[in-house]
Amino acid sequence: MWLTVLLLAALLLAGLRRVYLGLFGGNSPNPFAEDVKRPPEPLVTDKEARKKVLKQAFSASRVPEKLDAVVIGSGIGGLASAVILAKAGKRVLVLEQHTKAGGCCHTFGKNGLEFDTGIHYVGRMREGNIGRFILDQITEGQLDWAPTPELQAVLSYIFPTYGVTPSHTTFSMHALLVDHYIQGAYYPRGGSSEIAFHTIPLIQRAGGAVLTNAPVQGVLLDSAGRACGVSVKKGHELVNIYCPIVISNAGVFNTYQHLVPGSVRGLPDVKKQLAMIRPGMSMLSVFICLRGTKQDLKLQSTNYYVYFDTDMDKAMERYISMPKEKAPEHIPLLFIAFPSTKDPTWEDRFPDRSSMTVLVPTAFEWFEEWQEEPKGKRGADYETLKNAFVEASMSVVMKLFPQLEGKVDSVIGGSPLTNQYYLAAPRGAPYGADHDLARLHPHTMASLRPQTPIPNLYLTGQDIFTCGLIGALQGALLCSSAILKRNLYSDLQALGSKVQAQQKKKMK
Ligand SMILES: Cc1cc2nc3c(=O)[nH]c(=O)nc-3n(C[C@H](O)[C@H](O)[C@H](O)COP(=O)(O)OP(=O)(O)OC[C@H]3O[C@@H](n4cnc5c(N)ncnc54)[C@H](O)[C@@H]3O)c2cc1C
């Protein structure tokens, strides 16, 4: 009897050892062996210098030789995975379909001002917080954060941050977000393009590259069904790039419904995973250029959540099921931010001017009929609908901030189709897969992992963890851990302890 128990225990231990070695038993170098943080250098504002890093257009001749991995997409999930692999000595190529690198972290210019695409505030950026520590290590401390005024943790104001109303999500999702912002929020000094600007050089230093204007059309498979590269559209041609590992930051839907070959889309594991999730809520953005400084316009360094109802579940359900013509009159909530007030470098870069962004939840179906039309040529009916949302939002803005009367230089609207075009976000859903109960079910969360049913193809970014800068960054850590077969969380913890010990020694 005891012999049987001992034998079973030995078998169990051998099994566990095999699992551990399979997951973390690689002999890849530790990308977090040394603390690489150094004091931030002055902000680079020269447009040409920034363009050289953020807008390197794809051409076959720019593809480095002997690649170790290709990453599809340059959001934080893609860039962070690439940097971590680069820090472990890998040569990585990142391919971005848009003309600028950064995904939801890219910025764009309109009427002489700069707007963020998708970063308004980020929590837990105090020295010593894990998110800050990781970002310091993958940017060598060059990404600097400015605190905004403390946020009030009102119980349910925060649900638009993950895109579903309170009754459709888990308490843990909500608690995670409240906890994330409980110590206040931060904004990247110099705007959110700083994130890509300071990660790309680390990828280049290891022999890799980040090339834009590089829409990946498909993942290439070898005769054994393993991922072995990607094909990129260049004009009317397809350029094939071969490498042993392919990482997709394009999200689960783009990857499984468009990028993998048709034969793979029918695999039971792929179908099962797609059946568990759906694209999240889509969003319309209003970008407003203002005349005057934050002092002139009496603007605070904060975000405003504006609700017109107390029962948000009912209000959102009613709104989303409305015909599109009626919806603009019944917008149930707005998110209003003044990015210019949060960035300490703004006044030097854009004197006497300010910026405002308003986000409006929308149903993709309202805009779906124009999705095949080319950008800029979607016709008068599309513009009328988009403008109806813009005007409804502006009338609320003017009531809340009457001091802005006569100070508005220009207003631009971006519909869910705009998100689809610039961010390649399926159905204009900027947060990836919906953060509803089905997605947050432990079974779904466990199945949404970097490893895919296709050998050598990995997933990274917000669909692997949760949305948000830090959520997508966690996706990158999980993805890089899987590829390097290292527990990078342990590596980071060890580095953190080492840094703390060094700091204590210095203080003595
Ligand atoms: C309007 C808005 C406001 C937000 N506000 C905040 C906030 O205040 N704080 C916060 O923490 N988070 C915020 N978020 C969420 C956060 O920005 C995202 O969750 C996170 O940045 C997603 O990162 P990612 O790397 O997973 O994906 P993305 O940043 O979406 O990157 C994916 C990239 O893949 C590219 N791609 C897709 N398909 C292809 C292809 N076939 N070939 C080549 N490239 C391809 C896309 O162009 C894109 O660049 C906001 C998002 C939006 C849109």
What does this entry look like structurally?
A hairpin with a 2-residue loop joins strand 3 (107-110) and strand 4. This protein has helices spanning 2-24, 47-54, 76-87, 130-139, 171-181, 193-205, 251-259, 262-265, 268-276, 312-320, 339-342, 346-349, 380-400, 416-422, 437-440, 442-447, 469-484, 488-507, and strands at 69-72, 92-95, 107-110, 113-116, 122-123, 145-147, 185-188, 209-211, 216-221, 227-234, 237-242, 245-248, 282-291, 303-307, 333-337, 353-362, 408-414, 457-459. The protein is globular, with a radius of gyration of 23 Å. The longest helix is centred in the N-terminal third of the chain and has 23 residues, at 2-24. It is built from 18 helices and 18 strands. With 508 residues, the chain is α+β, with helices and mostly antiparallel strands. Helix 3 (76-87) runs parallel beside helix 6 (193-205) and helix 3 (76-87) packs parallel to helix 17. The strands form 5 sheets. It has a 5-stranded parallel β-sheet. A 5-stranded antiparallel β-sheet has the order 14-15-16-13-17. Flavin-adenine dinucleotide (FAD) binds at residues 72-78, 95-98, 103-105, 118-122, 214-216, 249-250, 254, 283, 285, 359, 423-424, 430-431, 461-462, 467-469, 471-472. The site of flavin-adenine dinucleotide has 39 residues, from helix 3, strand 13 and helix 17.
